[in-house]
Amino acid sequence: MFLDFLEIYLFFLFSGLGHSNSIGNEANEMGNYLQSINFPTGIVIDSVGRGIYHHAIISTTGKIFCWGYNVLGQCGLGHINDIGNSTNHMGNYMQETKIGTGYTPIFFGGGYYHSCIILDDYSIKCIGRNTGFFRLFFHLIFFFHLRGTIRVRR
What integer pLDDT is reported at residue 19 of this predicted model? Predict the structure, then answer.
């Protein structure tokens, strides 16, 4: 399925809707009531990835935009502020996750306090909590995180 619009309908903690309230646990929150998440103008979503309380999209041009819980920098934005719980965080306000130049991301996955990005040369860059346990643990749970990634366009 190809998404050629700038919004995707998702419901998560730190949903990117300008608050951090739970969504989907009350009447009139789902279906036609579900609000959309806005991404920067011109971004076409290629895939959606997630950590435990943070989420990301990879665009068709290889840009990553992450939002959610960011207490240890797991969104890779150069700060530790949560993203998406204020109205000036999403849409054209979103910052691109910094992975360096010359890389094309093909997968985004994470845990509570870290994110790992698989690049087109199959190398891995990890951000957030950087203890040996988490880096080694990523390799053990890699396939579990693959199940959590939604591929929107091939």
Answer: 53
